[in-house]
Amino acid sequence: MKYNRVLLKLSGESLMGSKQFGIDPAMLNHYAKEIKQVVEKGVQLAVVIGGGNIFRGINATEGGLDRVQGDYMGMLATVMNGMALQSALENMGVQTRLLTAIEMKEIGEPFIRRRAIRHLEKGRVVIFGAGTGNPYFTTDTAASLRAIEIEAEVVLKGTRVDGIYTADPEKDKSAQKYETLSFDEVYSKGLNVMDMTAFTLCNENKLPIIVFDINTPGNLLRLIEGEKVGTLVEF
């Protein structure tokens, strides 16, 4: 295996699948299968999942909702998604722990760095819920922060696109895919990989990022085994 400890970032929107809102059971089971394949190979895997399929705090402000309240509501949405993923994984026999940045002891354990690392060492999938626990920070930033804290070797950003392109490939058919990029190139080209806070955290802590298509079966395992999948952002 090329990587022994990774953090997988999933968007909440990806859980919608073909639905307009909420969670598509087919997508949930797909992600659980992808994760199970990797964990069975002995890889330590943590997950941060967004909440945009249920609630987006930044969008709520357009309707007059207070930004801080909206962000906290978004954090709760990530916990709901985390619970759903935990259930899907455990139905497949994968041991998991849900750790939340906002304490809700009936649902999951509070985030404690050393405890999270110990769970990973024991082969459990660790799902981080409630973002960073603070408003004004995205789940991309939560993913970067948690990856650094648990000493992950790479952040894997699972999307529906198979890497980083010169333009949006869903809108521009002439868009060209990058195989590898440096952090400086991403800055200079103005490419949208993660939000700037999250991206800068990875840059400052020498943590590579791979953007890849999580919807293609087997991609996650192939990537961790060292195959060229997606786009690698490194130094």
Task: Lay out the secondary structure.
Blueprint: E1 5-10, H1 25-39, E2 44-49, H2 57-60, H3 67-91, E3 96-100, E4 109-110, H4 113-121, E5 125-129, H5 139-149, E6 154-159, E7 164-165, E8 177-178, E9 180-182, H6 183-189, H7 196-204, E10 209-213, H8 219-224, E11 231-234
Parallel strand pairs: 1-2, 1-6, 2-5, 3-4, 3-5, 6-10, 9-11
Antiparallel strand pairs: 7-8, 10-11
Helix pairs in contact: 1-3, 5-7
The N- to C-terminal Cα distance equals: 21 Å
DSSP helical segment count: 8
In CATH's first tier, which class applies? Alpha Beta
CATH architecture, by name, is 3-Layer(aba) Sandwich
Number of strands: 11
In the sheet with the most strands, the strands line up as 4-3-5-2-1-6-10-11-9
Q: What structural class do helix, strand and pairing data support?
A: alpha/beta
Radius of gyration: 17 Å
Number of domain units: 1
What does this structure look like?
With 235 residues, the chain is an alpha/beta fold. It has helices at 25-39, 57-60, 67-91, 113-121, 139-149, 183-189, 196-204, 219-224; strands spanning 5-10, 44-49, 96-100, 109-110, 125-129, 154-159, 164-165, 177-178, 180-182, 209-213, 231-234. The protein has a single domain (5-234), classed as Acetylglutamate kinase-like (Carbamate kinase, 3-Layer(aba) Sandwich). Helix 1 (25-39) crosses helix 3 (67-91) and helix 5 (139-149) runs parallel beside helix 7 (196-204). The radius of gyration is 17 Å and the shape is globular. The two termini are 21 Å apart. The model has no long low-confidence stretch (mean pLDDT 94).
